[in-house]
């Protein structure tokens, strides 16, 4: 056991107390184990992390926000400074391209997100202070005062990593301790991030157990942990099966869980846009569907294409691009097997494979395009809208606008929905007929852009109706909204001013935006 | 069956299609049935209401907010104008006093709440518009586009009525159809309110099925309905047992449920306040605990009193007041039986009855005070903090400040927590030691006031950590926060301005408060 890497518990890197075994990362391009052995933690590690986090929760609740912001900014700077090492580790473990993906897109996105969290912390932007001077009531959002358990996904080794991504930054910003459950696909990347986080935490003077990390534990232990009422909340990004199992356990214990589960992100092409630039669109679609080997939550998994010549031409062009492409490396054998299974499922539900469907060397998978006509889709809408996580998309041919409307109406909740329209507005009647239906099925409605870009913005919604996420009112990306998920609403009734939290007092030296007697103001209350 | 009262389904008052039986209200003071017979609905009524609501959801999603506000204001005016009748019905069905409770407190509170909802609607205050001009992203809160099922409690025939209370007003304000499940303790009151709502709806030109009401259905049907994924959300106020059963069903189907479940609302008396005005406090406590026969979510169910002479004097004074009081009328035989059972449970867990514990004529119950010492409370904290819904409170004696801290730490989630401190601030060290612990156990922290007053204010929190409610981030009272529960987050990405909802466009003629590029403004965007 002494040869296993150390877990981060209670502010110290220490050997797992009760490892149930070990695992190693793999080079997905060659299906070969790489790097050191990491422990699969047992109950003792979990309980030790919980005990330490419970203590840290109290200290964090009352710590000054500027210290939290200081930590987030130090951590962001450390990530930027360590870019070469982080990118090398992540590339080795995920096979995602170094450029532009890891180095120029995901890494800066991750440190930027931590800095935006710091900014929201410094401005109290997530706390929504509301003051009613006449009623003697003052309310704001406050820490949960309990640990937040974050499950990171396989597909963003930095930006959604349980120890560095949006759920992490959000939970810490709200002054809660985080216990990160790294994804076993990229343990060394997660370890390196945790080392940077740990060092930044010591420099910023945060409680030692504010940030902890385990690499792996059995599903059964994970479910038991999700049902532990001592948790304040859970953040999860991953598969629908895993997410729903955790949600059931958490729900039963009254633990709020914010789970991002699955999405096929339908893309509708209105007829005019095919006339305008069908060929270019085929290229745009192909690029979006195969970028990152298609392993995006917002991958365009279904494209609705009008019947007729121009639609046919689009399908031919797209098929050619998919057919000519090299096989794409997936993250793991599990992802590869699930994708084979998903393509089989789509075929069984009535879709025809236009190209692809086969595996390649290592965990490679041939970019795959399937096809089904609109009536067949509607007849088997449930099976045909199952997510296929990887470089796979299903084309649905629609006879006319009413068919598009029926198809839109048949979707379950999704993260995104896209409509491509011609620039001259000639299809805007069709937009007006289709968009309201699609609007209510998705969290983000997109015009003329593939859904794979998820900007870190206060106006982003990386969320959507069930079953794409567990609640349609929340986003996991975009400060300060994502922070609010990990907060409790606190009202003070008739409490003397000197005993109130500073940001609810009359004097407002920090210029916090507050809703005072129905009006937003950053000023003091009274003569101040 | 033709003699049963009509249900409100699909915009019409009609006979129940499949009544499983009937029930009548009771005069709780005499335990005698009064008024007409109301149907217990079956599956056909439920499905008819669902179908009508699903259709109404689409129409409501796109209706102008001013029409919603118009409905809410007309309904509020109708309630005020019909006060005599409503108060007479509610008094007959609940035995709550006409003055001041029903006529001067609850009725105006209810119409005021509808008007505050209208105001939030007119100002788009619940929609949280966020615009990022550089990223081309614009987000706001929007209707769920699905029906909201509201379960009303027994204890507020107006202000929490499923057809008139905060959940109703909030769900409608967010432009969702409401199916109200009235409480069977006050069917005629609910019927009268529904008639006023229906008339206001026709005048305002809302979709006919925007507001529907059933009086009653079996628990099994209710659970099946809560698990219907066609619902957008559920609002529930009631017992913990019923609420948790509904929550389990809703969670499984991915239906967000906002449930207010139970609370004992601990009240801590610091030593100095007993010295200052112990006698007056005993009176204040007695009045709060017996008002409305103690049938409040925020009833002071546990009072923590320092040991020693002044504490003894407080207990003697309170015991005398409880002993001298007349028996209080409860809402129903069920409430009476549950309360007997709850008092038995407290005794079994180690509490001694100081006075009371017996039933009286009709559904009366003698105001009841129990006592336990601090160590015994801590040894059986789970059983001793079980809610006793009615004019019952448990006094816990605390040896010193550390004992108070341990007692505070032993509480599960509550709606409120109160600390009484002397006006001269001499106990503020004790406040600072105790308040942080209590703060994280409750939604509203109160100083020097009994918890039973729940002001309708934007800074109110009528919510709290589990198991007092299902999520610590939400309040069921206080606009606009309560409205957000019934909304979905919608982001628009790269959508041309003309195709955006009006409140997200550059021009802002309504002066909606919006977060534009990180700054709150009610102005236009660009040169506007």
TrEMBL record, chains A, B:
The keyword Oxidoreductase applies. Pfam families: Aldedh. Keywords: Oxidoreductase. Gene3D superfamilies: Aldehyde Dehydrogenase, Chain A, domain 1, Aldehyde Dehydrogenase, Chain A, domain 2. Residues 16-464 form the Aldehyde dehydrogenase domain. This is Ketoglutarate semialdehyde dehydrogenase. It comes from Dyella nitratireducens. The lineage of its organism: Bacteria, Pseudomonadati, Pseudomonadota, Gammaproteobacteria, Lysobacterales.
């Amino acid at each position: 056991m002494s040869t296993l890497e150390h877990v981060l518990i209670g502010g110290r890197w220490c050997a797992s107390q009760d490892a149930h075994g070990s695992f190693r990362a793999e080079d997905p391009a060659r299906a070969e184990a790489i790097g050191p052995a990491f422990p699969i933690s047992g109950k003792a590690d979990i309980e030790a992390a919980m005990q330490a986090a419970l203590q840290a929760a109290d200290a964090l609740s009352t710590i000054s926000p500027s210290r939290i912001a200081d930590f987030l900014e130090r951590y962001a700077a450390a990530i930027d400074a360590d870019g070469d090492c982080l990118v090398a580790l992540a590339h080795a473990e995920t096979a995602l391209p170094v450029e532009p993906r890891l180095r120029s897109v995901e890494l800066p996105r991750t440190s930027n997100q931590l800095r935006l969290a710091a900014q929201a912390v410094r401005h109290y932007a997530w706390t929504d202070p509301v003051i009613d001077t006449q009623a003697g009531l003052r309310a704001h959002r406050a820490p949960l005062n309990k640990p937040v358990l974050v499950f990171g996904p396989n597909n963003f080794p930095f930006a959604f990593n349980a120890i560095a991504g949006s759920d992490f930054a959000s939970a810490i910003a709200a002054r809660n301790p985080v216990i990160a459950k790294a994804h076993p696909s990229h343990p060394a990347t997660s370890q390196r991030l945790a080392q940077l986080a740990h060092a930044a935490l010591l420099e910023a003077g945060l409680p030692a157990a504010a940030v902890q990390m385990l690499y792996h534990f059995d599903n059964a232990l994970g479910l038991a942990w999700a049902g532990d009422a001592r948790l304040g909340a859970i953040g999860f990004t991953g598969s629908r099966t895993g997410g729903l199992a955790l949600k059931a356990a958490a729900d039963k214990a009254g633990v709020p869980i914010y789970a991002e589960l699955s999405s096929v992100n339908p893309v509708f092409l209105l007829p005019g846009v095919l006339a305008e630039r069908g060929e270019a669109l085929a290229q745009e679609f192909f690029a979006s569907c195969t970028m990152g080997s298609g392993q995006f939550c917002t991958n365009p998994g279904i494209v609705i294409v009008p019947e007729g010549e121009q639609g046919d031409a689009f399908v031919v062009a797209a098929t050619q691009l998919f057919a000519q492409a090299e096989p794409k490396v997936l993250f793991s054998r599990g992802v590869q097997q699930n994708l084979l299974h998903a393509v089989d499922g789509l075929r069984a539900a009535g879709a025809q494979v236009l190209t692809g469907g086969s595996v390649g060397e290592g965990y490679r998978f041939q970019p795959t395009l399937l096809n089904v006509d609109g009536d067949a889709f509607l007849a088997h809408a449930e099976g045909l809208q199952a997510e296929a996580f990887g470089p796979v998309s299903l084309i649905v041919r629609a006879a006319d606008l009413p068919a598009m409307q029926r198809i839109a109406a048949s979707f379950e909740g999704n993260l995104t929905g896209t409509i491509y329209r011609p620039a001259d507005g000639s299809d805007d009647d069709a937009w007006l007929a289709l968009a309201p239906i699609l609007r209510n099925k998705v969290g983000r409605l997109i015009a003329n852009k593939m859904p794979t870009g998820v900007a870190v913005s206060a106006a982003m919604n990386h969320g959507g109706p069930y079953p794409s996420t567990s609640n349609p009112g929340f986003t996991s990306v975009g400060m300060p909204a994502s922070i609010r998920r990990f907060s409790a609403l606190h009202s003070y009734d008739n409490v003397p001013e000197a005993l109130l939290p500073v940001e609810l007092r009359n004097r407002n030296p920090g210029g916090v935006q507050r809703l005072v007697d129905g009006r937003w103001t950053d000023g003091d209350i009274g003569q101040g």
